[in-house]
Amino acid sequence: MTDIEPPGGARPDDGEIAEGWAEPWRPEQVASRLAGLEVPWCVAAGWALDLFLGREGRPHGDLEIAVPAAAFEEVRGRFPELEFDAVGSGTVWPAAGPAALAATHQTWAREPASGRWRFDVFREPHDGATWICRRDRSLRLPYAEVVERTAAGIPYLRPELVLLFKAKATRPKDRADFDRVLPHLSPDRRRALAGWLARVHPGHPWLERAAG
Fold first, then answer.
1. Which of 15, 25, 64, 71 has the maximum number of C-beta atoms within 10 A of its C-beta?
2. 193 φ/ψ angles, rounded to the nearest 5 degrees
3. What is the C-alpha separation between 189 and 195, in angstroms, rounded?
4. Each residue's pLDDT tens digit, 80-118
5. Closest Cα to residue 133, out of 168, 104, 164?
6. pTM of whole model > 0.70?
7. How far is CA 179 from CA 59, 111, 143, 182, 200, in A?
C-alpha cells in the first residue's frame, strides 16, 4: 500500500467479508482456467502447503494465487465474467482502476451476480523471470526455484517461502501450518527456510526449530 489511498474505496466489516468469501474456489478450478498460460503463476498460502503435502490439512476460507505483476492482465483475461477488486489495509476498491491497482498488491476476484469473491490474486514484484520477495526485495530467486507442481500439474509456491510469509503474523492457523509442514521438509528445505527467516525476520521464534 502507498501512504495515500486512491478514492472510491470501501471498508467492509468482518461479517460482509465472511459472507463475500462464503464459497471460494478450489485450486483445481483456477488451474483449469489458466491451463496453457505461459505465466509463472502459482497457488500460495495455506492451499500451497496442502498441495505440497498432498492432502487437505484444514478448512480454507479463501484461495490465493501469486502472479508476476506485469502478467496480471493476462491472468485477468482468463476470467472475463469476474470483476477484480483491489484490496489493502482493510479497504476494497470494487472493479479497481489503475490508481487502486498501483497502490496495492492484492486483488479479489468477484462474481458480480452473487457478489462472492472466488479467489485472491497477489500481484508480485519481479524482474523478468526473477521473483522478488515483497518483504525483502534483496531476496530474489528464479521462478524455476519458486514454483513447484503437484502430480496433476497444479503449480504452487514452494513451502519454505509460504512459511516465510506466514512468519510475519503468526496467527493460530499460521503456527498450526508451520507445525504440520516442518516435519515434512528435507534438511535442505529447512536450511533454506532458516536462512530466509534469519534474513527477513531476525530472532523469529520459528528460527531455532527450522534450523534444528
1. 64
2. -60, -45
3. 10
4. 999 999 999 999 999 999 999 999 999 999 999 999 999
5. 164
6. yes
7. 16, 35, 26, 6, 20
